[in-house]
Amino acid sequence: MSKNAELLARRQAAVPRGVASATPIFTERAENAELWDADGRRYLDFAVGIAVCNTGHRHPKVISAVEEQLKRYTHTAFQVSAYEPYIALAERLNEAAPIKDAKTIFFTTGAEAVENAIKVARVATGRQGVIAFRGAFHGRTALTGALTGKIVPYRMGAGPAVPGIYHAPFPVPHHGVSVDDAFYGLETIFKVEIEAKDVAAIIVEPVQGEGGFYVAPKDFMVRLRKLCDDHGILLICDEIQTGFARTGKIFATEHYDVEPDLITVAKALAGGFPLSGLIGKASIIDTPLPGGMGGTYGGSPIGIAAAHAVMDVIADEKLCARAEKIGARMKERLEAMKGRVDTAPIGDIRGLGAMVAFELVTEKGGNTPNPAATSALVAKALSHGLIILSCGYWANTIRLLAPVTVPDEQLEEGLNMLEKALVDVAAAAKAA
Ligand SMILES: Cc1ncc(COP(=O)(O)O)c(C=O)c1O
Question: What is the DSSP letter of 173?
Answer without folding.
Answer: G
